[in-house]
Amino acid sequence: MTSPLTALLPATExxxxxxxxxAQSEGRxxxxxxxxxxxxxxxxxxxxxxxxxxxxxxxxYRIGSITKTFTAVLVMRLRDExxxxxxxxxxxxxxxxxxxxxxxAQLLGHSAxxxxxxxxxxxxxTPGTLRPELADVLxxxxxxxxxxxxxxxxxPGYTLLGSLVSAVRGDTWENVLRNEILEPLALNRTSVEPQxxxxxxxxxxxxxxxxxxxxxxxxGLMAPAGQLWSTVGDLCRFALFLAExxxxxxxxxxxxxxxxxxxPAEAGEWEATYGLGVQIVRSGGRTLVGHGGSLPGFLAxxxxxxxDGVAAAVLTNATxxxxxxxxxxxxxxxxxxxxxxxxxxxxxxxxxxxxLLALTGSWYWGTHSFVLRLCADRGLELRPLGGGGRGSGFxxxxxxxxxxxxxWTGQDGYFAGETLRVVRREDGSVQHLDLGxxxxxxxxxxxxxxxxxxxxxxxxxxxxP
Length: 465
Hints:
This protein has helices at residues 10-27, 67-80, 104-108, 134-138, 155-169, 173-182, 223-226, 232-244, 252-258, 324-338, 354-359, and strands at 32-38, 41-48, 61-62, 202-204, 211-213, 229-230, 272-274, 279-283, 286-295, 298-305, 310-316, 361-365, 368-374, 380-384, 392-396, 407-410, 419-424, 430-435, 438-440. It is built from eleven helices and 19 strands. Helix content is 24%, strand content 21%. It is of the alpha+beta class.
C-alpha cells in the first residue's frame, strides 16, 4: 500500500504500534485505530486489539468535532467564491437568528460569545428532532460573552455556520459537504451515517472492566458541529489537505489562513489557540494543526505538522479513556524525530532579473542591518543579520499574485500584508526601499537616501571625552 520512498522503517513502525498499544491498554478502550501520513499518502496504520489491524484504516468511527473543520472549509469556499466576506455579520446571509451581529469569522474562531452547548436535554445523546429550529438550538440565553472579546467554544455556533452554508448554496449541508469536499478529495469512507464496517460506541465503567453500549443519534441541525463518521485513512488524507490545500476544494492560501490564529489564547494556555475551524497547539517544539472530537461512545484526534509534512489520526470507540489528540501528537513526533523530512535539493533559479539581483545584499533600517535575498517567482526575503528581529518573505505584486509592478507584499512575520516598494531617483537609480513607511538604505543613515528627518550634515563622529 506504500511505496519504498514513503514506507517507514521497521523501528519506527514498532514505536508507533507500541504507542497505540499502550494507549489502548492504559486507556481501557474496546479498540483504538491509528494512521500516519506523509508525502501525499498514508504510510502506516495500526490497531489494538490486533484483530482490528486488517481493516484498521478502513473502519469507520464517529469523529465528533473534527466535523467542524469540514464545515469551516465549506464556509471558506463561499468566501473564496465571493459569495460572502468573513467580516460580514451573520444577519446579512442568515437573518432572524437573534445573534446576527456576530461575524462569520467570529463564529469560525469561536469568539462570537455564544453558549457552549444547546439547551437541555443533552444534545449528543438525544435525537436532532428535539431541536427542529435554530431557536431550539440556541435557546433563550444565547450570549455568554461580549462579541469578539474572548475564545469560548460553541457547538451552536457551528450549527449556525452549517445553516449558513445551506442557505447560501440552496442545498442541504450534507449534500454540499459530499459534493464539495468528500468526492473531490476521494474521502469515500466519510459519511453522515455509519457505513459498514463501523465500530460500535461503548461506555466503559470507570472502576470495573465492564461496558455498556452508547446510543448513536442523528444530530439534525447540530450535524455540522459533530455528526460525521470517518476512518483513519480518510482523515490522514484530509490532514494532508489541511497542510497543502487542493485547488479542487480550497487553495493553499485559504488553507493557510485557516491555520492562522484568529483569537488570543486563554490565560495560562499559551501553547494552544484556535484558527478558522482548526485547533493550533505547540507540542514538543512543533506546531500542530487539526482538531479533536468526542461524542458518547467515541473519541477522535487529528493533527498535522506542516513543517515536518507528517499527519496522524487516532480513533477510539469509548466515551472516555485515552486522549486521541495526545496520542496523535505523539505519533507525529515519533515519525518526525525518527525519520526527519529530507530537504529538497538546492537548485539555482531558472532565470534571473538583473535589476532584482542588484537589490540583493545588505540594507539598513537606521543602524539595524538586514539582508535581502532573491527567491523564486520574483519573490524577496528580508531578514535581520545576526538573528532576532523583524523580517518577512515577500511575493511580487501588490496583490500578492506575482505581478511585476515594482512592489511586493509581506507574507509572514511583522511585515505580513505590508507593502515593500523600490523608490528610485530621477536617473532611475535606487534611492531606498520603502516598507510600510520604514526607509531601508544601502548605508546606515545614508545622507541622500531620503531618510525621514534628514541626516546631520557633519556625518558620523566620535565622542569627545
